[in-house]
Amino acid sequence: MGLTRREFLQRSSGAIAIGGALGSGLWAWGDRAGQVLAAPTSRKLALLIGISQYPEAVSDIPPVKGGLLPGALTDVEMQRQVLQHRFGFQPADMVTLTDEQATWAGITEAFQAHLLEQAKPGDVVVVHISGLGSRVRSATDPEQLWDSIVPIDGGLPTSDRPLIADLTRATLEQLVRSLPTSQVVTLLDLGFSNLGTSLQGNLRIRARPNAPTGDLHPQDLALQESLGDRLRAAKATLSGPLPGLFLTAAASGQAALEGRWSGFSAGLLTYALTQYLWDATVGTALSTVLTQTSSSIKRLSGANQEPQANGTLSRDGTSAYPLVPAEAGADGVILVAPDSARTLRLWAGGLPPSALSAYSPGSLWETLGSAPQLLRVQGRDGLTLKVLPVIEGASVEPGQPVQERVRLLPRSVGLTIALDSSLDRIERVDATSAFTAAKVSLVNAGEQSADYLFGKRRAVETTVAAVSLSELPNPAVQTDVPPSQPVLEMPSSPASLDGKYGLFYPGCVPLGIELSTADEAVKTAVNRLTPQLRSLFAMKLLRLTVNASSSRLSVRAILEQMGPGSTTARPLPIVQQETVSIPNRLSSKRLGAAVESGASVPAGSTLRYRLQNAGDQPLYGMLMGLDNTGQAIALPLSTSTEQPPLLPGSSLALPAEPFPGWVVPNVPGLAEIFLIFSVAPFSQTLAGLPIAPGATPRQAIALSNPLDVAQSILQDLHDATSINSPSLGNFPSNFPGGSYALDVTRWATLHLMYRVEATA
């Protein structure tokens, strides 16, 4: 049996007796070391840690209303839900430590009592920590730095007490090495780079802003030494790859980030990984899990955050993920039994956060199983939905997996821009006046969710050479740092402000839109921006429709590079996305999980899209997005409203062959493209495009009315919901009139992003 939180707190009231209970656990592990580690799994254990309420004396960051990192607690809940309901972990075998429970002693005692003393060879162990990380500078040798995890009581050094009471990464790694099983997943959703600030754009950085200088606390050094002695006595390795999979949120020199959406916050790594795991199925390759996670982080925020994979499993990207999910994918699960009002709580962790942010009451979900039941959404609290069965008296049980069926989106959606902390008071006043006149809502960076960021552009963009997840399945695995050696700090060029104003994704990645010239006033710059705001508004609307995880259509989109950047005769795949469909609703073999290569595209390359339909319904399609110059573009798969261009089991190129693809402009920037598929034609959208009926699309259309086009796309998807949907009852009277109703059996939206590198 796992220990309760109270038991852990009682046992953690003082420092651990290094040679006592911990030692017995390690010696027991040594006796079992010769057993076969590949034995069938008999148990699954998890230790989930999240810290939000850091005091300033620990974090070196002024207090923040609602907690410094509220997303750390969300992370713990996301992991707990997906482990229990997708991977079969028992609640009694999962221990969570949050805030005041997550002291240095509490963390190390929980690891020892719950994992070291209970795990056996072949068991699966998951360790998750969300909070602050840090670099610690040695007081005796300022050139040496150590990575550390900041517990709730990890006080900063003072003149009277020059000790740093953090849990060093070296100590954590020794604890992981001490486990008697190789089936281990360790996830650290925190960073070890001290970047001098707690914000990156509108996202919070999960690391101390500055590296404290001091001496490591004797308790950490003693535990590390004791673990090393016992590992050596058991003839186990103290260096080399860690057992299983060891994931960290960002590369050295990068920020590990926490995002904020409407009603909740979360770590980018944890949200991306757990969202994908809701849809993963048996046999999913590790490389697929990790590359999709890395790609999702970019789509969540445009952030320059590359998660890192270490450990024995990361050497072979084709290995199966160490966690084996349930047979069918899901978007969420029923949490509690109906009360007297017949209401239920539904966990919706499998949906993208952009969709949940605008989720409207009246949306429909569907239970999985032989007798599916429709559930109508009454409201939302973070990632939890309040739902009622559509049919009164329908049988719905806690733990039952569910999938999205109809997504209701409001027709009136606003655009919110965060003002970067780099702006001074006068700049903020002028920006507020100008954006308010353009009917844009403004918030201060780091305080509320926002669609984009307004601030000063950086003159120097820092790039870091790192081993990223997107390089799998043949990753150059980082060598684990022996615990006896400090980590050396990687120098980076500070990004100075060049005085020009710009628009950014929330993670401070610039848009391709040219906003201001040198010495231009804020109001003048923003006034020139007004036409581009309609393009950004259009992108937000399309982002609300992304449903690769819940669509029942089976489609794939591959961006191919045809130009001089390709070194082979065959097209080079750059970006790939696809839906995760329910296998028993497909007439062909289910496609593999969606992946992205993460490659940049050199300017001057020729690009085209390869689209595939693996389902049993003919489909219409539409491309819309922003290219790397910030220009809104659109291109239909066909101008016909009677002959679907993408037939079952077929594929086509966009633009259609033999026409050449698009030449990438020589402008650095991020391109954001949406590919929307539907069982019904895009009649209203086509009517608003400057293209003749019956014409064959050759090149993307530069849009002067992007918001109108995006609204037409949503209206066409709404109209498609009313066609042949008998299971939804009397449409459209069952749905609010002020909403778009989109049926996941009728549409799919794939979201692709790629970066363009300009040439001299």
Structural write-up:
With 760 residues, the chain is of the alpha+beta class. Among the domains are: 333-405, Beta Barrel (Thrombin, subunit H); 544-757, no CATH class. Helix content is 22%, strand content 26%. It contains 14 helices and 37 strands. The strands form seven sheets. Strands 2-1-3-8-12-15 form a six-stranded mixed sheet, with helices on both faces. Strands 16-17-20-19-18-21 form a six-stranded antiparallel barrel. Strands 28-37-34-30-31-35 form a six-stranded mixed sheet, covered by helices on one side. Strand 13 (257-261) and strand 14 (264-267) form a beta hairpin. One of its GO terms (molecular function) is cysteine-type endopeptidase activity. Residues 43-315 form the Peptidase C14 caspase domain. One of its GO terms (cellular component) is cytoplasm. InterPro entries: Caspase-like_dom_sf, Metacaspase, Pept_C14_caspase, TAT_signal, UCP_caspase_lke.
Question: In summary, what is this structure?
Answer:
The chain is α+β, with helices and mostly antiparallel strands and about 750 residues long.
Could you tell me the radius of gyration in angstroms?
26 Å
How many DSSP-defined strands? 37
Residue stretches low in confidence (pLDDT < 50, at least 5 long) are: 1-6, 8-41, 460-496, 582-595
Strand order of the largest sheet: 2-1-3-8-12-15
Please estimate the helix content.
10-25%
The number of helical runs is: 14
Mean of all residue-level pLDDT scores? 81
For the largest beta-sheet, the strand count, sense and barrel status come to: 6 strands, mixed
**What structural category do the secondary elements indicate?**
alpha+beta
Instruction: Please state the overall shape, judged from the principal axes of the Cα atoms.
Output: globular
**Proportion of residues in β-strands:** 25-35%
Distance between the termini: 63 Å
